[in-house]
């Protein structure tokens, strides 16, 4: 029996109503999904084993104040902040005003992280690197639909990834008007060794994500070596060319050169799945541990690479290569 207050609906109205109520399989990720992707990327990077002198499933590496459970708590504590970054960015363009708002959200997220970890700054660099990409992804969702539709599947995936990195870079190029004078380890290393650090990486468009990490990850997957090994080799590819301020902070140029040289040796030996590559990996780790050094900057960029990779996998059907 029809309800007395029912309103007759034509087929077109019903179709539009259903479209609003049913999730689109090719819909752009919402703010909560972007935040989940970001946290998953940090967790997957932390859990990846083995990593040279970094916290992983085997232990704390060169870190006396970090372990895997703490890294996981740190990552999970940042989910609300990543969602807030996406929400603040959606429907807007990069600007000084947006940069200032995102910086305030990031600083609040850092406080949440410190509370969750009893004072550890485990993911301070990742808040900057991955947070900018979350913001870029939220903005890109609004301007990609029409421009990407005409591209071939591989072109569409690559173009979206590049666009996210470009938007994150544009945000990073605006000054943080309310920031206190910089006195971080990274800033001191930047000035002492004249390297770009995380700030320059972002302002340059994340070259170690779009130009190193993603190509290395896809190339490794294409060989069939397995996802874990592919990600380890991707980390090594990033290490091989990155001026990692974490290595520089902990061990100076000796640490940086040991990390870069050792990573190249593993890759030249065929990667971590070969006997020669694993022997070279063990040598790399021994060298870094002897210097009390770990490639934390490369780890952050691996997490960023995994985040962009998740965006590609979430792309509309046929968009992923």
Describe this structure in words.
This protein is an all-alpha fold and 321 residues long. The chain has one domain (29-42, 56-181, 192-313). Helices cover 69% and strands 0% of the residues. It contains 14 helices and no strands. Helix 8 packs across helix 12 (245-268) and helix 11 (227-241) packs across helix 12 (245-268). The longest helix is centred in the middle third of the chain and has 26 residues, at 124-149. The protein is globular, with a radius of gyration of 21 Å. The protein starts with 10 loop residues before the first helix and ends in an 8-residue tail after the last helix. Residues 1-26 and 317-321 have low confidence and may be disordered.
What's the main sheet like? none
Number of helices: 14
Helix proportion range: 55-70%
Query: Which shape, going by the Cα principal axes?
Result: globular
Number of strands: 0
Overall domain count: 1
What's the alpha carbon Rg, rounded to whole Å?
21 Å
Strand content: under 5%
User: What is the succession of H and E elements?
Assistant: HHHHHHHHHHHHHH
- State the distance separating the first and last CA atoms: 52 Å
Mean pLDDT: 87
What class do helices, strands and sheet pairing give?
Answer: mainly alpha
Low-confidence stretches: 1-26, 317-321
């Amino acid at each position: 029996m029809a309800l007395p207050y029912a309103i007759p609906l034509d087929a077109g109205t019903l179709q539009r109503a259903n479209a609003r109520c049913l999730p689109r399989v090719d819909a752009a990720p919402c703010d909560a999904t972007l935040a989940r992707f970001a946290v998953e990327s940090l967790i997957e990077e932390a859990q990846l084993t083995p990593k040279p002198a970094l916290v992983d499933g085997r232990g704390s590496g060169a870190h006396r104040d970090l372990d895997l459970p703490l890294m996981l708590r740190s990552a999970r504590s940042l989910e609300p902040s990543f969602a807030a970054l996406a929400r603040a960015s959606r429907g807007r363009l990069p600007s000084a005003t947006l940069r200032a708002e995102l910086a305030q959200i990031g600083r609040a997220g850092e406080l949440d992280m410190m509370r969750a970890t009893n004072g550890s700054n485990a993911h301070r660099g990742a808040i900057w690197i991955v947070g900018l990409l979350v913001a870029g992804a939220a903005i890109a969702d609004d301007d990609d639909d029409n421009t990407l539709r005409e591209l071939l599947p591989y072109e569409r995936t690559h173009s979206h990834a590049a666009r996210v990195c470009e938007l994150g870079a544009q945000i990073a190029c605006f000054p943080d008007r309310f920031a206190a004078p910089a006195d971080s380890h990274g800033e001191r290393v930047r000035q002492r060794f004249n390297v770009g650090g995380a700030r320059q990486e972002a302002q340059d468009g994340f070259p170690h994500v779009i130009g190193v990490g993603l190509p290395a990850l896809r190339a490794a997957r294409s060989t069939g070596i397995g996802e874990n090994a592919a990600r380890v080799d991707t980390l090594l590819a990033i290490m091989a060319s990155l001026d990692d301020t974490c290595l520089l902070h902990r061990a100076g140029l000796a640490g940086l050169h040991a990390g870069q040289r050792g990573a190249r040796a593993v890759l030249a030996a065929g990667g971590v799945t070969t006997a020669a590559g694993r022997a070279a990996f063990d040598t790399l780790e021994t060298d870094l541990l002897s210097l009390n050094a770990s490639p934390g900057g490369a780890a952050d960029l691996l997490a960023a690479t995994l985040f962009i990779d998740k965006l590609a996998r979430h792309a509309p059907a046929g968009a992923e290569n």
